[in-house]
Write a structure and sequence with these properties.
With 143 residues, the chain is mainly alpha-helical. The protein has two helices and three strands, in the order H-E-E-E-H. The chain has a three-stranded antiparallel β-sheet, with no helix packed on it.
C-alpha cells in the first residue's frame, strides 16, 4: 500500500465522522448514477445500506499494518541503497582495472613495414601457342 493512500485511510478510520442517516442511489434518464443524503425529487431512488464503522480492534490492526508496511518499505529502501553502493563500487573497480590496462601510446611515429601488393604481370590473355610437331622415335643403338 502506498503511504499517500494510507494516511487518508488511517484518518478516515480514526476520526469520528458525522454519518448521514441514510444514503440514496438514483439513476437519471442518461444513465448517470448519483448518490445523495436526501432522496431526489421525481426520480426513483434506492436506499443504500452503509457498513458499520470500524471497531477499535480493526482500527488498531489497520494502524499496525501501516506501521509494518512503512518498516518494510524503509528496509527495502535501505537494502536497495546498499545494493546500488555495491554495484557502484564494483563498476569503479572495473574502471580502475581498465585504466591500468590501457595500451602505451608512443608519441614518436614508428615505421612499421606493410605487406606489398604485386599485381599480376599480365592482365590480358596470351595468344594460343601453335601445336608442337610430332616427335619421331630414335632408333635404339645395336649392341
Amino acid at each position: 500500500m502506498n503511504h499517500a493512500h494510507a494516511l487518508p485511510l488511517l484518518l478516515a478510520l480514526l476520526l469520528p465522522t458525522a454519518q448521514a442517516d441514510s444514503i440514496y442511489k438514483s439513476v437519471d434518464s442518461a444513465g448517470n448514477v448519483t448518490y445523495s443524503s436526501t432522496p431526489p425529487a421525481g426520480v426513483k431512488a434506492q436506499k443504500v445500506e452503509l457498513p458499520p464503522p470500524p471497531t477499535e480492534e480493526e482500527t488498531r490492526q489497520a494502524t499496525e499494518r501501516i506501521k509494518q508496511q512503512a518498516e518494510m518499505a524503509s528496509e527495502m529502501e535501505r537494502s536497495r541503497l546498499e545494493q546500488e553502493a555495491r554495484e557502484q563500487a564494483k563498476a569503479e573497480e572495473e574502471a580502475r582495472k581498465r585504466e591500468a590496462q590501457k595500451p602505451i601510446v608512443i608519441e614518436k611515429p614508428v615505421y612499421v613495414p606493410q605487406p606489398v601488393y604485386y599485381p599480376p604481370v599480365s592482365a590480358r590473355p596470351r595468344p594460343p601457342r601453335p601445336p608442337l610437331p610430332p616427335v619421331k622415335p630414335r632408333p635404339l643403338p645395336n649392341p
